[in-house]
Amino acid sequence: MLQELIGLSILDLMTDVNRVACVDPENSLEHALLVLVKSGYSAIPVLDRSGIVQGTISKTLILDSILGLERIEFEHLGEQKVKDAMNPNVTKIRPHDGFVRALELAINAPFLCVEDDDGRFIGILTRSSMLNRIHRSMKTEMHSSYRPTSS
Ligand code: 2BA
């Protein structure tokens, strides 16, 4: 089972860019909040026009950036841009880095941004896709090693 897991393909487990909710660094925070709420995710990638990932934006970062002294100043949502509030420290991986490296990075990141060799964003690798795959292998292994005792 271990060999099988080590050899797993990041591309096979990846959520393709076409199915990833994302925003542009120049978008307003109001637009980003709309995308986050509509998609249901707490954080999503920020992609520039050339398809390079520039950061991640979350509901928490947005609320933090419009936090006044005594209240959340929602009226400022339309004035600020995603690039001013995003977290630029993105956890990235390339397909040839391998599954074990992806698993290691996923300990501290709920999703990894997958890039091709030109540094272009091609999708995300989520914790749930990795855990699902590991769970599937463990179940298969447990069933194949189960030997009922004859009485
Ligand atoms: P969260 O948004 O905090 O979501 C945590 C987990 O909750 C997800 O884990 C998933 O199991 C579930 N979940 C949340 N919103 C969902 C939705 N709209 N549909 C289905 N399941 C949902 P993961 O699947 O491991 O995702 C980890 C993180 O990756 C997510 O954290 C989110 O930040 C990001 N993510 C996942 N799929 C995405 C997508 N298609 N577009 C953009 N970001 C995505």
TrEMBL record:
Q: Does the keyword Repeat apply?
A: yes
Read off the CDD domains from this record: CBS_pair_bac
Q: Does the keyword Repeat apply?
A: yes
Q: What InterPro entries does the entry give?
A: CBS_CbpB, CBS_dom, CBS_dom_sf, CBS_domain-containing
Q: Which residues form a coiled coil?
A: none
* SMART domains from the UniProt entry: CBS (SM00116)
| Record SUPFAM superfamilies | CBS-domain pair
Q: Which UniProt keywords apply?
A: CBS domain, Repeat
Domain CBS per the UniProt entry, residue ranges: 14-74
Q: Which Gene3D superfamilies match?
A: CBS-domain
Q: Could you tell me which Pfam families the record lists for this protein?
A: CBS
Q: What is the recorded name of this protein?
A: CBS domain-containing protein
Lineage of producing organism: Bacteria, Bacillati, Bacillota, Bacilli, Bacillales
